[in-house]
Amino acid sequence: MDLLFFSFALKNIxxxxxxxxxxxxxxxxxxxxxxxxxxxxxxxxxxxxxVNESTMKSSFGNENLSALLENYSSIEDxxxxxxxxxxxxxxxxxxxxxxxxxxxMMIVMLxxxxxxxxxxxxLKSIGWTDFRVSALVLLESIFQLLISWIVVIVLLLIFYLxxxxxxxxFFNSVHIxxxxxxxxxxxxFLTSLFIPIIGTIIPLYKAFRIKPSxxxxxx
Amino acid sequence: MITIKNLTKMYDKGxxxxxxxxxxxxxxxxxxxxxxxxxxxxxxxxxxIGGLDVPNEGTIEVMGxxxxxxxxxxxxxxxxxxxxxxxNLIPNxxxxxxxxxxxxxxxxxxxxxxxxxxxxxxxxxxxxxxxxHPKYLSGGExxxxxxxxxxxxxxxxxxxxxxxGQLDSENSEMIMDLLEEKQKETNATLIVxxxxxxxxxxxxxxxxxxxxxxxx
Lengths: 219, 216
Known about the structure:
heterodimer; A: mainly alpha; B: alpha/beta; Rossmann fold; 6-stranded mixed sheet; globular
């Protein structure tokens, strides 16, 4: 039973190939943007953690360092403030990508649900519950995200095979394998899950509310 | 089997009355045709019996259960089989998968579902199309698949809304033969909405509807 349900959701994704390609491409770009934002956040944290008086002196010079630390009681205080600022900055960057992804997902899924009003009416008239129809819509958007993740992982692996771990000077503390196996991957994956879940709330509601008798009149 | 009392259905906040004070009894295993012109309210009545729409006034009881007091999705899944004017098959599913759709949420195993669906495809003589998509079928064949879908849950009541409306006379006759044959095999109650007298006269009883009321 469940297998048919899953295969139905998967087939629905590829019903409109252009739209699916478009959304998977956008999600792929979005995931990369998230991945790099989370990575940059980690890199920044590492950089700040490694700061001490001697590294700061060599970077800024004695005079500049005194001016820089004027408002701080200690270097630790300065580091804490920097970490806090970085966290806030990256939180907004990540929230921005999630918001854009969520909005795009919402628009696409609303269109998909709208086009299938009659079909949803048929499903309900043959006994599907409102919840089952909504679950189908949610599953479709989660599948789109998972397909995008597969594309991202394949692209990262291709990049890894071509360039090895070398991500350039800026990322020298983060190897490409870290993207796939470590917490950066987990954080990005969990963050990206918000996109289909929040992005389909309104389409889910729309599908939930469709009355079969009205949907059957829909052309 | 089906008892309808004082049924009234209005739209547009009461400005349009689709059905007015309908009283009707339909027996077990009866084949009933509902006839009427376009807009007379015959499809609305069928939708009410099918739990697709709810009345403003009155009650509908099916097998002793008042429809306003039961879960309609369960009722549609377990008691009814719907055949629509347009086949309404899902284009990206195969014929076999389309027939399995009403069984979602039932306690049947995946292989049981497949077996039931396959048996029905054989019964409507389309087993060779099991793994084909509906677009490869003719109008009559698609409607036969739709009938198989309506029968897969062994319904006690089969509701058909203009099942031959889009078909030529040869296919219409074949579809009606099939519906009648299956109704007799399963002892289901069959209610067919039509405006075609040739179809309607095959029934045990013809109910004529005009301006939302049953003609006496």
